Amino acid sequence: MSYKWTLAFLGLISMGAAKAELIIQESQTQTSSVSTSPIQTETAFTACLNRLKPQALAAGISSDFYTRYTQNLTPDRSVLERLNYQPEFSTPIWDYLSGLVDQERVDLGVQKIAAHRTVLEQISQRYGVPIETVVAVWGVETNYGAIAGRYPLLQALGTLSCEGRRQSFFRGEFLSAMRILQRGDVTQNELVGSWAGAFGQTQFMPSTYEELAVDFDGDGRRNLVSSTADALASTAHFLNKRGWRTGQPWGFEVRIPEQLSIARESRTQKRPLSYWINQGLSRVDGQSLLSAGLSEDSRAGLLAPAGENGPIFLVFHNFDVLYRYNAAESYALAIAHLSDRLIGIGAFRTAWPTPDAGTSRAERREIQQYLLNRGYDIGTVDGLIGDKSRQAIRQEQIRLGLTPNARAGQVFLRAIREASRQQ
Fold this sequence. Notes:
By secondary structure, the protein is an alpha+beta fold. The chain is built from 19 helices and 9 strands.
């Protein structure tokens, strides 16, 4: 199994704003931009939208409404640049999780659970999904509603409907967004999200919104932007409809007997739990594999995102349900791990197989502040390591006698802390 995770294009376009921004920042030096085709002129863009009008009318959008909301639209060149990144990229799993599941996000999640306990209990009772799982999705998607995206959806989806790859897919999302706006569930000012169209506190694509969003607060609108109750309930509804099994775990970290090869095992190759028991697998926390909600017939597969020398997980059906929220194993593991941390389960027992583990957002901000103090122009201290920060890190690594790999990892963090103490 590869020590890196790969995120396919369909997973990328459905991800939340906070998660997408983190990944794009982390991947800038690992990807190469595909040359964009000539951008649509505004005249050509208007002509494209006019050609879409019959399709919009057939989709239930009134003529006057369509004209009103498209007549002043202009193409957004930045979404085409995002679209034309390589459709797949890789980053070490320890970097991905260190930014998405850090103590800062855990602490804030605990606070959010306390603040919304009553409605979360009602949601969990109705849909059978644990409170912590729902809140974990909220935390990873938008940092609990704090980073929901900045792209006006009609403009972004309109642009993607008229140029670039997968125009048919984006046209369907564009028309879904128009119907949502026409129904009055959200205002045009609220219809803002990721470059690819995901919006709201838990980042639904418009078509998913139409299918599964719910009005949980009873105000007559399904508003996943300003109604936390609607957003969290809709997330639970999504997981419920995708097959969440109440009372069963997503999985847990396990130890593998030395003589057992897992080279051909995977998350999708499920076997009865009795098979894994007979193979000698054990949970790292010492509990029985037959925990609550499981039987010897329960089917499970192995997930080893960093290979045989890193943490290994026995995962069940509910992990696959998390995977359906955004098609990447790394994403599902982030949700699963954060949900465990919110329950009170600690970090993974097995260390990642790297001498330079990832850093949390707080540690990345510490690195950025150090660079600013050293006189580097890196912009805002925000915990997102972009090109300016990497260039500065490389220069400092040379100065400190480190390998100049521009990496904001634990090796560099320890080095600058030691340098600061010696000043």
